[in-house]
Amino acid sequence: RPRSAEEVAAGRLPLPDHSHLPGHPIWAVNEIRLAPDHEHLRDTVFHRMIGSTQVFQTYDDMEAYRTYMRKKRKTHPILLVLQEGTRVQSDGMTDPNKTVDVHMEQNRRNGRPPLPFMFGSLPPRYDREVAMLNQSIQAAAEVASAVQAVEAIQAGAAEEEGFEAQVHDAEAQIAELDARLSALRGKAR
Questions:
Q1: What's residue 2's pLDDT?
Q2: Cα→Cα distances 159→52, 55, 65, Å
Q3: pLDDT at 120 over 60
């Protein structure tokens, strides 16, 4: 159903409240902060990308929810754990090699943030591609602006041609009226 004005203003989709369930899951799509003029993207792009992904504060919270869902014989959506940076697929698969944990520990030892990313951020390897895309978008905007300027000039030229035609017609009418006036003067003498 379409969102009410209150739901749009609150920046939330009308999804069931699961905070009373074990682990207190939160809908990831409702945790995204958007500018008011981008709020419509929550219904479309972000809901399509994130779907029913749920967020938990700790791994224990996520495990409590998974245990609850198994007892109910229900599948769960993708689960994200904020503290550990863990992602659990709907089939229960996590990172089998614990590479996220290894990287987090290496980063801690080197004085860097535990996770060099946030869920939803682009990996650094895409920085160059993103920069190139941004340059392409800027160039496309400049081309569009130039096309609009050319169209405005062409529209002005068309108006000028129309104006010239009107001047020519008016001059022809003046010449005709002048000739008639001269003829009338000649008859009057």
A1: 81
A2: 57, 61, 70
A3: no
Please say whether the beta carbons of 18 and 56 come within 8 A.
no
For 53-93, what is each residue's pLDDT tens digit?
899 888 899 889 988 988 888 888 888 888 777 777 776 66
Question: How do beta strands 54-56 and 79-81 pair?
Answer: parallel
8 Å CB contact between 86 and 59: yes
Q: In which element (H, E) is residue 55 found?
A: strand 54-56
Model pLDDT for residues 30-59, shown as the tens digit of each residue:
888 888 888 888 888 888 888 888 998 888
- Beta carbons within 8 Å of 26's beta carbon, 6+ residues apart: 18, 19, 54, 55, 56
> Which residues 6+ apart lie within 8 Å of 115 measured at CB?
85, 100, 103, 104, 107
